[in-house]
Amino acid sequence: MSENNMEEKVEQATNSKNVSLPMSRVRLIMKSSPDVSCINQDALFLTTKATELFVQHLTLSSYKNGSGKETNTLSYSDLANAAEETETFQFLTDILPKKILARDYLKSLEEMEKDDDNL
């Protein structure tokens, strides 16, 4: 699939009045907030559409900058890199951290403990 073809599909989805995310799930997530008591149908539709467009933007930018262009795939590491390297997605770094091996994590913990002991 070419990059232009991918962008055309995104453009069509953006201009569409249909949503592909289930509105019932979005409503459930919105109602989980204690500040929300009633949800207007228009607000539900707009929130669902905005979420859909955000996910499309995140995946498209991750795909463009990712390693899976040749195989036409998108991996977790592509999403994590986009979250870390793109200023727009910086708020996602806690949700999409880069994966590290357990031995690397344990090594960094040991180094932190040594640094604390030296103080």
What are the key terms here?
mainly alpha; Histone, subunit A; 0% strand; 119 residues
Short description:
With 119 residues, the protein is mainly α. Helix content is 62%, strand content 0%. The longest helix is centred in the middle third of the chain and has 25 residues, at 41-65.
The major β-sheet equals: none
In the CATH hierarchy, what is the architecture at level 2?
Orthogonal Bundle
CATH topology grouping? Histone, subunit A
Radius of gyration based on Cα positions: 20 Å
The whole-number mean of residue pLDDT values reads: 84
What sort of overall outline do the alpha carbons produce when their principal axes are compared?
A: flat
Strand content: under 5%
CATH class: Mainly Alpha
The portion of residues assigned to helices is 55-70%
Q: How many structurally independent domains? A: 1
Uncertain residue ranges: none
CATH-assigned homologous superfamily: Histone, subunit A
Number of helices: 5
